[in-house]
Amino acid sequence: MRVLLLGGLFGALIGFGLLLMFVRVPAFRRPRLDDRLAPYVRDAPGVGGFYQLGDRTFTPFPTLERILRPYFRDGARLLERILGGGAVVRRRLQQAGQDMTLEEFRIEQLIWGALGFAFALVISLLAFVARGASPVALLVLCVAAFVVGVLLRDRRLVSQVKHRESLMIAEFPTVADMLALSVTAGEGPVAALERVSRTSKGELAKEFRSAIQDARTGLSLVEALEKVGDRTNLTALARFVDGIAISVERGTPLADVLRAQAADVRESGKRELIETGGKKEIGMMIPIVFLVLPVTVLFAFFPGAIGLQMVTQ
Length: 313
Hints:
The protein is mainly alpha-helical and 313 residues long. 80% of the residues lie in helices and 0% in strands. It contains 12 helices and no strands. InterPro entries: T2SS_GspF_dom (IPR018076).
């Protein structure tokens, strides 16, 4: 029975491979109108279909990846139709400071899911050969591993967004003080932003450089900074943009506004540090109660128990 199941599994894999080869025969894949027009309009933005990767690779095997690129394209389209939420993913990619597109992110999700599926498949084959486990349960395990891999890539993107936002909050007071010094020295807001973005390094400086580039293309400084606030979704940066807008429109002193915002961010950081310390204090009670205290009681009780045993004898 085990030999029959194993033979059926290998036969299904071979049949699936032959089916893929049959489907990918050029005679059965007529090029679409978009694919036929793409070489003539490749310089136009947003033209070329869903899948535009260029020469970028995602694995250490670029040759094999280029061979499998049509399958990646179809898989990315299918995954986008199943999961949806393309606008949310694009916004998260902007917040994380990633230069990849939605299509490239879907490809990475497919790769993570494929790695999870391959790992679960190896475990399933070992379990099937060693203990004769149910093939249906093993198939469910492989599918679940694929889904977990896809979701883990999404969770990693969320963690990257949170990490970048924490870095920007940590950099904001210093950058605000540098801007205040530049403005106090007589420079305008644009010149001060250029100086700070040129001399400082970090995620916030990158956002200011992008804002300066937008301002040079024709947008006003306030509109360019509002785009930064929309991308980052940070309250401190939103107040920073509002302060600059009010200062530019009404002529209020910009240096005082920047110093006040830097002080507010520092106070907010102190409050968050105190809250984190309170939470860690409760967490530190767990090893004390469950590890240190039982050992202390044991050391205090054991000599007395030995003494009582010797007395009774």
